[in-house]
Amino acid sequence: MAIGIREIAAAAGVSISTVSNVLNGRANVGEETRQLVRRLCVEMDYIPNAAGKGLKSGKNRTILFNFSDFDRSFYLKIIEGIHDYAGENDYDLMICTTKSCEKYMRSSLTSGCIILDERMKNDVLARAAGIQYPIVVLDRILPHSCIKSVVVNNYDPMTQLVREITARGYRKFVFVGGPSHTGDTQERFAAFQDVLKDQGIPFSREYYFSGDYREKSGYQAARIFLSTGDLPEIFICANDNMAIGVIKALREEQCRIPEDVAVTGFDNCELAENIGLTTVHIPNYERGYLAARSLIENIEGGANFDPVIINAAVSWGSTLGKKNP
């Protein structure tokens, strides 16, 4: 049996007119009820007809933000930037993670989406994107006419950071990377390798540890090298959370930072600032704001899908010492 708004109304415990108002994007429905009706439309496989033409055309004025998990604190600044621009332009914001995101990526439920999740596959994005459903990605560049990339320039600030590290005399490194398939990790590690190659400094792959951007993986990396007694002069970490994990493990063994071992990160999260971590500052509020602006402009017919590259800068802290060459 085909599902109609009568069945949606019964399941939601609201009137048919309330469901109709939600489907047509009218503002006279409470947000809790609006979200309930939209969720039931997905779960019950309701396909909007003429009664839902407003929602189907994308006039529901809701944008979707998908990110990978709740463990990395920098997401909060990105969400704040997205929220502020969306609110200024009378758009609602729906936030979800990979498991639930795909079913909301349709113009009958949201007007477009912003993606920051390496687990969201390119083919899923390519199928969902269209003129009536623009997408912005924050973690990759995709060759698609309806997907816009707003990405960070990882290479230049990592190059600057590693050049300064080698200028201070560091020669024995451990690189703690994130998932190897992610563009951020690839770009940050490429910059690290290129600087060492240019300066004729060897780096053995056995000193590369593949983490997952979470604090625990940084902690594990440090514990492994502590257990063998083969400590480097410096841990270069592809994000702050892993650097914080490294610092935690080193301090448990009374290693002095940076006198015994130095540590650097990438992201400049709030905790990194508090502990004086040398890192790379990414303007995440601005990143979210620009992503929301790009998405909403394209929802409203802007058709500008050229990539936006965001600059980042090194933030020097006390976890990097001054070794003698």
Structure characterization notes:
This protein has 325 residues and is α/β, with parallel strands linked by helices. Among the domains are: 1-56, lambda repressor-like DNA-binding domains (434 Repressor (Amino-terminal Domain)), CATH 1.10.260; 155-282, Response regulator (Rossmann fold), CATH 3.40.50.2300. The chain is built from 13 helices and 12 strands. It has helices at 5-12, 16-23, 31-43, 53-56, 75-88, 98-101, 122-128, 155-167, 183-198, 215-228, 240-252, 270-275, 284-299; strands at 62-67, 92-96, 112-116, 135-137, 147-152, 173-177, 208-210, 234-237, 262-264, 279-281, 308-310, 313-315. It has a 6-stranded parallel beta sheet, with helices on both faces. Helix 9 (183-198) links the parallel strand 6 (173-177) and strand 7 (208-210). The protein is elongated. The model is unreliable at 49-58 (pLDDT under 50).
Describe the secondary structure blueprint for this structure.
Layout: H1 5-12, H2 16-23, H3 31-43, H4 53-56, E1 62-67, H5 75-88, E2 92-96, H6 98-101, E3 112-116, H7 122-128, E4 135-137, E5 147-152, H8 155-167, E6 173-177, H9 183-198, E7 208-210, H10 215-228, E8 234-237, H11 240-252, E9 262-264, H12 270-275, E10 279-281, H13 284-299, E11 308-310, E12 313-315
Parallel strand pairs: 1-2, 1-3, 3-4, 4-5, 5-11, 6-7, 6-8, 8-9
Antiparallel strand pairs: 10-12
